[in-house]
Give the backbone structure.
Amino acid sequence: MKWLAIASFCVAAGFLIFGAVALRPFGAPTLKEMDDYFNRFSQPEVAANNAVTAIVFDYRGYDTLGEATVLFTAVTGVALILRRTKK
Amino acid sequence: MIGNLPFVVCVILVALGLWTLVAKRNLIKLVIGIGLIESGVNLFLVSLGYVHGGIPPIYTYAPSGAPMVLPTPQALTLTSIVIGVATTALMLAFAVVIYRHKGTLDARKIRDLRG
Amino acid sequence: MTVVVRTITRILFPIALVFGGYVIMHGHLTPGGGFQGGAVAASALAMVVVAFGAKSLSGKKGLLSALESLGGVAFAALGFLGLGVTFFANVLAGSGGLFGNPVPYGPNPGDLNTAGTLPLMNWAVGFKVLAGLGAVVLLFALFGGEHDR
């Protein structure tokens, strides 16, 4: 059982390292039209100097809304689990 | 090979987390392994968006003429980091409750999900 | 903790809170934003929990919970503010009013009165993250121990 775990881990790690080496070269992204649009138009459209903030709160606001929901759910779950139980 | 060294480093982080998940039995160590995988994936996403000679995608006092790093992976990595914090807090809370009920943190002794 | 830690915490607590507020307030101009600034401010809260014990903050759970709900509701309401165009439309940007100054294209020194609803959303998310992480740390410090099962 131990050897099965080690063998499967070695296969998975080998695939991961092979994929990282065989990927496109570092620092030269191939598909960047969307990001160029965001970099170009974050100032005229959103009037923000910071393109990352423009994406987080304006272009992809739905994403941030879901993220806030996840954070709220996690805090609620922690408060529900870690409450003082009467005993 | 040497040009892709940042990707290899991220993948090594992910592999360390996977080894922690496979080999360890303590629940706290499993949570640490999941955190390692999260860190590796976040680092991989940010390094995917790097452009050679790039500057941060912020126009406040930016040097003119330099290309800007892709902003979308950074924004989504921000989302991923916050969700990682939330899931880590929830997993640690579950570990606390399991230790209270079972008196142990060994993942083999809590496989019966009764009581 | 010892008196050294308590004294340093008394000095550093307002500085950390003010720095978190700075990171939130300049979120649309410099690196940072609501999440990062909220995490910085929550670290100040965690420092108080470590130095003075969790009992000193145990009355603040309701306040933190209310603050987090308020931040979430404010964020959703700011999203609904642009419902005349689409959900999450930035109606305040470039309108000339609150946070409505126009921005010239290209590198510029930065103006705090720009970017429309983004600074308001930054504040809402910052309070939400501050209250959420602070509540998590406080709950773990209060009820995470073995003694009060």
Observations:
- Residues 31-87 of chain A form one domain.
